Amino acid sequence: MARARVHNFFVSLDGYSAGETITLDQPIGSAERLFSRFDGRFIHGVDVADEPITLDRALTSTWGQGVGAEIMGRGKFGPQTGAWTDEDWRGWWGDAPPFRTPVVVLTHHRRDPLHFDNGTSFHFLDATPEDALAYAKDLADGQDVRIGGGPSTVRQFLTADLIDFMHLVTVPITLGTGVSLWDGQAEVQDRFTIESATSASGLIHHFWNRTITG
Amino acid sequence: MARARVHNFFVSLDGYSAGETITLDQPIGSAERLFSRFDGRFIHGVDVADEPITLDRALTSTWGQGVGAEIMGRGKFGPQTGAWTDEDWRGWWGDAPPFRTPVVVLTHHRRDPLHFDNGTSFHFLDATPEDALAYAKDLADGQDVRIGGGPSTVRQFLTADLIDFMHLVTVPITLGTGVSLWDGQAEVQDRFTIESATSASGLIHHFWNRTITG
Description:
The structure is a homodimer. The first copy, chain A, is α/β, with parallel strands linked by helices. Chain A has one domain: Dihydrofolate Reductase, subunit A (3-Layer(aba) Sandwich), CATH 3.40.430.10. The first copy, chain A, is built from five helices and eleven strands; from the N terminus they run ββααβαβββαβαββββ. In chain A, the strands form two sheets. A nine-stranded mixed beta sheet of chain A has the order 5-6-4-3-7-1-8-11-10. In chain A, strands 2-9 form a two-stranded antiparallel ribbon. Chain A is globular. The A-B interface holds A 3, 5, 45-48, 51-55, 58-59, 61-62, 65-67, 143-144, 164-165, 167, 193, 195, 197-200, 205, 207, 209 and B 3, 5, 45-48, 51-55, 58-59, 61-62, 65-67, 143-144, 164-165, 167, 193, 195, 197-200, 205, 207, 209.
């Protein structure tokens, strides 16, 4: 049974995972300190990570395993809002986006799919979380679907009780402002079995596995 | 630069990783309790692991990442000793050994290579650790080489200072007897940077990255 999984999702001590305003210079807004103080290369497996292989990097490497598609919010794809006026924009990642699978970009504004040579494709979809997940599972061809963020997107899927697994990472810094992962999520923990582990870097890794559906 | 890596290497509190006598019924001798009390499926990635995805399983999944060949001792391949009298023996693993890469089996007794449909092949070699590693690196085609055990084989490569990385797992049980990973390895830790992390299961994971060569 294909799962919906969240991976390497960095959260500050005060609950923020992104800044409030995304610009071309600041892809995650003012929250970039979430990644700058620690090794935030959250999309690489051990096979491409530099030495040394640390706990953080080993856990990081689960990001792509068994994943056949991603769903992301429009803010993760680019800083634009509203109708697409610049169709030359093909995401932040250049000619080889790291996903290597189909990616569903949630947006109210239609656009033709984009295809890259390395297996990545972007499919722009205006849909509820339920319908987006069904669409992505179809693209994933039996593998799991990663819910790639940002935090508002993860929250939508949590609220709809569609998340089966989350690897969250507490970064021991405060941001003071930003987009919270936890807004409106009181009691979300009741649906999960939660394990946590500290790393020598100061990061705290959480494994949330859903135990109760409903 | 291709590395030599040890993964998911289970060690009891008293330092044993295998029993003294390997038989057809007991592939790791009397040390099977190392695996029976905990989830010892040490060769599966997240993509094939059952739910839930725990810390233990996430770390387990680094086993095959970026690895292009394995080196194992003869005792890991089978219980026989001396000249090959039963060439029908093709290892413990049936028609689909989990390695999916070339595997170098260290033995003083020649035998023709074995090939399996899933990409696994076994190559029987009488060589020093240095020469075996050079041979395996060639087979690995630029990827890393896993030193697959048993403990005597890992010790040989440690003594020759050929190990770049070890993921060891302390299992909180005592065995009282067996083959020790640590015999003759006094001060081995001086060549490594070591990080450790506890898991909710009671296992303790260690990441040894080599920092000093010589």
